[in-house]
Amino acid sequence: MTRFESAKEIYASYGVDVEKAMDKLSTVAVAMHCWQGDDVIGFDHDGPLTGGIQTTGNYPGKATTPEQLLADMEKAMSLIPGKKKLNVHACYAIFEEDGFVDRDKLEPRHFKAWVDLAKKLGCGIDFNPTFFSHPKIKDGLSLSSPDKETRDFWIEHGKACIRISEYFAKETGFPCVMNIWTGDGFKDIPADRMGPRMRYKESIEAILAQPFDKNLVKPCVESKVFGIGVESYTTGSAEFSLTFAATHDGCLPLMDNGHYHPTEVVSDKIPALLTFFPEVALHVTRGVRWDSDHVLILDDETKEIAKEIVRCDALDRVYIALDYFDASINRIAAWVIGMRSMQKALLSALCTPNASLKALQDENKLTELLVMQEEVKTLPFGDIWAEYCARQGVAADKAWFDEVQKYEAEVLSKR
Ligand code: RNT
Ligand code: ZN
User: Fold this and answer.
1) What pTM value is reported for the model?
2) Best substitution site from 54, 323, 326 to test ligand 1's pocket, by max atoms within 8 Å of Cβ?
3) pLDDT tens, 291-302?
């Protein structure tokens, strides 16, 4: 008997069909964020990263051109099993010589290379307007600025991004999740907390007035608790964003698990939101002490997030995207570690006897429940994961990093 066959029998004794679990996982898309590849810079500006987020580290080999970034993403994708999606920010528009346009004037044609890559990989694209790292951010504010000209510029940017999102969906055949996040906020105690939020509400409403097909474009609003330099107040707080999504048809709430107070967990928020929203979106990340955006790993909360999505039978109602940026290690490895960790967490959740655990809870057999919950933690999951990678035709856990090292020696180190 192979290790896989033996593991399969052990899982079967707990009532888990690992074949079904692997089949299911192969249908679940995880979106890989382009911004891990170049430390959230993009191709449309030379200025620094703003918006209260920060990358640290200067590991060599960073992509600095569209060709490099797309090649790096393709390399990473080849080492990740299962269904994927690209996640692109508007600042990654690709301009021909002298063809620069500002963010309010972006067009689908500026993203054709992204569509070509998605078609080559057979995947969809998610999209994000970029409301940071730009001279038109006035006093740290974009859509919530008191200055009308500033707001109008960013509203036009948002509308352009809806048109681009629809183009992505039409070209790839997969709906495009379009996430609105701004770094708008204040370092110190504001004198007016409501004014910016009223303006933010009106601005997002103006963006969403751009006509679009709700089956093709899924606009989201992402909340945040604080950022660097915006410690005292963020316009798009949790309550603001959640209520906005709840009161605007077709708009989804997006939860980033780095954006909450330390004892709050997104895993618990998922079933709460699924009780009311047809669909929700996630940014899965790893905050270390703050919203530090470390590379995602298979830690307890990542596992718990995956468990909730699976247990709520919501794999087709939750859009999963990764969001982190670590410049201190090989950036391709950073993508692969995070993507494989998310998929491991999902597979592990699918290999959990969820129905029997739920029955124990409903029968109030809470001692047995705790016993079982502890036991399933040490089932031979690694053998199922190894089989899944083999069936998907991607390198196994010990082998993929060799490929990254080879790419580093042959490509990255020559940049
Ligand atoms: C920032 C938000 C946001 C960004 C990306 C680059 O805290 O998480 O999602 O990380 O838009
Ligand atoms: Zn995020």
Assistant:
1) 0.97
2) 323
3) 999 999 999 999
